[in-house]
Design goal:
Radius of gyration of chain B: 20 Å
Order of helices and strands of chain A: HHHHH
Radius of gyration of chain A: 24 Å
Number of helices of chain A: 5
Largest interface: A-B, 46 and 56 residues
Strand content of chain B: under 5%
Number of helices of chain B: 9
Distance between the termini of chain A: 64 Å
Oligomer: heterodimer
Distance between the termini of chain B: 69 Å
Number of strands of chain B: 0
Shape of chain A: rod-shaped
Shape of chain B: elongated
Number of strands of chain A: 0
Strand content of chain A: under 5%
Structural class of chain B: mainly alpha
């Protein structure tokens, strides 16, 4: 088991998809190799970072334009959710 | 007129609820796939309009959520195909191993307070910037699976890929993201 091999198989290792023998070899390598331990940990942190992007709010100006466009296409006003589209009285 | 009639027949969520609950997800998914906020607005407008016309046909949030991903991804990919290829600086991986397969340089652990930094606006911008610089093939998979939380199999269906290709591109995307973020989060060498 080399560092190159560990990094190549990191996704499968981290998600528990490797055959048992290969999983054990990867685990043993990570325990011995401080670089691979740091690499594997930062790889997982990267995944956690990506999840923080979900649930980002709409910028107010984007929300206002979308609401205006929808109102035109639907033929009725769409009320702005609280905090969005504020500043455009036509959306209320 | 059809849309207006359909909107009137909706007995489930109101247009306001649809907008509040789904517009941010649709917009940010489209923005990350397209790398262009203005194009993402156009796609979001179209997808929201479709949602409001068809929302009465869905039973439960899960069905609507799955359908939204599919419609948004299809619309964004169709939009991208119509546009000229974008020339922007994309992330590339440097060879990081010696001939013997060991790391060329020691990998330093990331700073211990990285979790606390994740909510900071500056950190979010760093991550968004790195996502934007992923090559398109990798970015599509990364955005769906790691940002949106879509399962590998569903991402494969949405993108017309095999599950194996999704996993391989996801891994490559994560490596590129890690490499792009490492300079900001690596601790100081002892």
């Amino acid at each position: 088991m080399t560092c190159r091999h560990l990094v190549k198989r990191l996704l499968a290792f981290a998600s528990g998809e490797l055959p048992a023998a290969e999983h054990t070899r990867c685990r043993d390598h990570v325990r011995r190799c401080t670089s691979c331990a740091a690499f594997a940990e930062s790889y997982l942190v990267t995944v956690r970072m990506a999840r923080t992007l979900a649930g980002t709010d709409l910028p107010c100006d984007v929300a206002a334009r979308l609401l205006t466009g929808l109102a035109e296409r639907l033929g009725r006003r769409v009320q702005a959710p609280k905090g969005e589209g504020e500043g455009d009285p036509g959306l209320r | 007129m059809v849309a207006v009639e359909n909107a009137k027949r909706v007995t489930g969520p109101t247009p306001e609820q649809i907008f509040r609950d789904y517009a941010p997800r649709i917009y940010h998914l489209a923005r990350r796939l397209l790398n262009n906020p203005a194009d993402a607005e156009d796609v979001t407008q179209d997808v929201l309009f479709k949602v409001l016309r068809k929302v009465h046909t869905f039973r439960g949030d899960a069905a609507l959520s799955t359908w939204l991903h599919r419609v948004t991804v299809n619309a964004a990919l169709a939009f991208r195909r119509r546009e000229a290829s974008q020339h922007r600086r994309v992330l590339r991986l440097q060879e990081q191993f010696s001939a013997a397969g060991a790391h060329r340089a020691p990998i330093r652990p990331w700073v211990p307070d990285v979790g606390a930094r994740l909510q900071a606006e500056e950190t979010r911008r760093l991550i968004e910037d790195a996502v934007a610089r992923l090559p398109e093939n990798y970015r599509d998979v990364f955005v769906l699976v790691d940002v949106e939380g879509v399962a590998n199999g569903e991402a494969a269906r949405l993108l017309g890929l095999s599950v194996g290709t999704v996993k391989s591109r996801l891994h490559r995307a994560r490596l590129l993201m890690r490499a792009a973020l490492a300079p900001y989060f690596e601790g100081v060498a002892a």
